[in-house]
Amino acid sequence: MIKDNNNKKPRVAIYDFTDCEGCEVKIVSLREKLLLLEKKVDIVNWRLGQERFESGPYDITIIEGTPITDYEIKLLKDLRENSKILIALGACAALAGIPAIMPEKDRKIWYEKIYSSQYHPKGVDALPLSAYVQVDFSIHGCPVDEDEIIRAIEDLLSGKTPRYHDYSVCFECKQAGNPCRITEENKPCLGPITQGGCKAICISGGSPCYGCFGIREEANIPALIKILEKITDKNEVERYLTMFHSRSKEINDHK
Predict the structure, then answer these.
(1) Which of 140, 206, 135 is nearest to 168 (CA)?
(2) What digits encode the pLDDT tens for the residues 81-140?
(3) Which of 2, 29, 178, 223 is 20 to 30 A from 255 via CA?
(4) Could you tell me if residue 5 is inside a domain?
(5) What is the rounded CA–CA span in Å between residue 203 and residue 241?
(6) Are 131 and 94 in a shared domain?
């Protein structure tokens, strides 16, 4: 989708909204690979990684986090207008993720308890970037996987459209030699409906899959919900489904 024309390197900007910046730290952790990547692109705007700041237009804009203020929403729309390619980086940007867990009515209760009834919050409900603008590709994860960052950027630089993996986390669990949490351990897991790419890192470390890599295409969500409700109660199933997907249409259509 982005090709190097006339030996001019694509201009790349990296922005962050409301988040923990963990996914941007993953970019920094590319280390030598980041230096090699910088030979192919010109990172002209990245608050976390450098002092350089240049305005758009940009060839590729990468955004971490979810916009929850009027300023962030306006900036997002401006970046969309001034970017050829817009990429959501991580679960907060792609899914709204953890920031979206608490609904507005509950936030109001905690605002008053913590800050008093005189506090006037500036934030709005956390929504994915796609609720406001067109997103060309999402690099999923909480945090993202370094190899997925490189794969997406290299595809764009070679003129390809990045694609999501056509297998679930279950495939990567098999590769890692993990026992199935559902069939062998009788424990909840969203691996069957979650697209691969994370290398099953959570399950390999002893934790369940909460679906931070996004719902895979043609996922049989109703079937998995029925299975999970035989393993645990509905409240626990709801907790699993809304850890990262409280704003996910695919999940909410089947709850």
Answers:
(1) 140
(2) 999 999 999 999 999 999 999 888 888 888 888 998 888 888 888 999 999 999 999 999
(3) 178
(4) no
(5) 16
(6) yes
